[in-house]
Amino acid sequence: MEQSRWPDLPQDVLHDISSRLRDAVDFLRFSAVCRPWRDSSKPIHSFPPWLLPTPEEDSIPLRFRCLFSKSSYRALLPIAESGRRIWLSTHDATTIRYLTVEHQRPSLHDPLTGAVTRLPLLPHKCCVDGRWEENLHGAVYADGTTLLYGVSTVFEDTKTIASFTAVLLQPGDAEWTLVETIFENTNRSREYCATYRNGRILVTVESSVWQISTQRGVDNMGIPLQRLPTMCGNYLEQYSYLLESRGELLWATIHVRTYYNDSRRFSMWVCALDGDKRQWVRKDGYSLADRVLFLGSPNSFAIDASVLVGHGGSVYFVYTNSKAAPYKQYGVFRYNLVNDEVKFIERLPQGWDCEKCTWLIPETIMAPVQEINRSSLEARGVKRQEIMCPTHVIHVERYYEPCFKVLVYNLPLPVKSSQLRLLFGKHGKVFSTEVICDKKTKRSRCIGHVTISTSHAHLEDALDALSGLVLEGCNLHINMVKEGRPQQQRKKLPSFIGAAAQLHIGPFSWLWL
């Protein structure tokens, strides 16, 4: 079809195409082709979440992975203060925050805009030995309340004593409210998680959640959970997550059992807090079939199942325990709460292993169309337009990972480089192909070089996808030569006159030029 006829596609066809675009970047690319395509696209209220690591270092670009489109992105962030990053959970899945502490003074950072909020000095008792800061977690809530907490455990004889220390800063407060308590007789070291709700701090402890009052003179109270079959027996690891969904406070717990052959078995249950009866009630898998849960550190949330058709009742989580899992199992898993089955989705991208990961929902806002031509510029002059909101524009680029060079053996004798490019182009982006020939006879040696990057996040997955290729009846053998990356090029979107495609995440936007 001629290029000039693309804008003339029937409206029903354009509507059908745009309704199938579930990835934020694909939606923007579609809308940036031409005005008829832009006008035909229906606004999508929510996109599938992106996964991103939460590194403690301050010199690493922010990296994103969309599992559902098999694509990766990265962006250089505004210059921030140096220091260890302590990532916090947020009430809004479209925002992320982290904390730095210097000389007892914490600062709250928005890594996407560079905005910094100075917070009051932490209580001296929290920073005596510095260990509390090393084990610090926290959250920022919709009303502006900030919760920071840490748990330290001490082993005495046959029991474990856990000391819980938290500080709470509510809007208008000039200083932090210090909250301390001790949990005794915990069976083993666990991952504790906490949240602030209705004036109380909720902390997961073994098979119960404790309500801790922030007011002096008010006793703390444990909210019991009826013992479940999946809680019985030995398991090596337990991970707990607290999240709110449709007004309910949910407690999701993952158990990991280990077997003699180093295999792993996952089990999961989700409970809801019954405020009237003051107890946790396990939710049936079918009651969550209209939602999809995303569990991460620090952000966990649920989205409507209509955003991911066919994934209702599923839970996505990252498993990265390097001390207790084979290398292959570092990655993203999907647990089906309806049939209690778990599926390995993909390995984490290289460089993400053993890192904590969180989830983020991208938002899209299309900039208004403005027609710009030479005559209008000459008449008005070149006038810089003031961008009112958002005020921060960060360049994002498609990040191909991994990129590598392979040797291809057992090629058919008459094969050409163009045939290699066509074959490997079905599995990724091909940068170069070459059939190696004898210098004297100029005949093929049935060996070729291919430099390629694929949609797979990890090198091992990419190589596995290339195994078993057949060309003209010959089974090809693939050996990796080296891992490398071609010169970085910013990926440009097709655009029409005066149009700009922007991807908004929270109070900032990414602009493709």
Automatic annotation (TrEMBL):
SMART domains: RRM (SM00360). InterPro entries: F-box-like_dom_sf (IPR036047), F-box_dom (IPR001810), KIB1-4_b-propeller (IPR005174), Nucleotide-bd_a/b_plait_sf (IPR012677), RBD_domain_sf (IPR035979), RRM_dom (IPR000504). Residues 404-483 form the RRM domain. It comes from the Eukaryota. Keywords: RNA-binding. The keyword RNA-binding applies. One of its GO terms (molecular function) is RNA binding. This is RRM domain-containing protein. It comes from Triticum aestivum (Wheat).
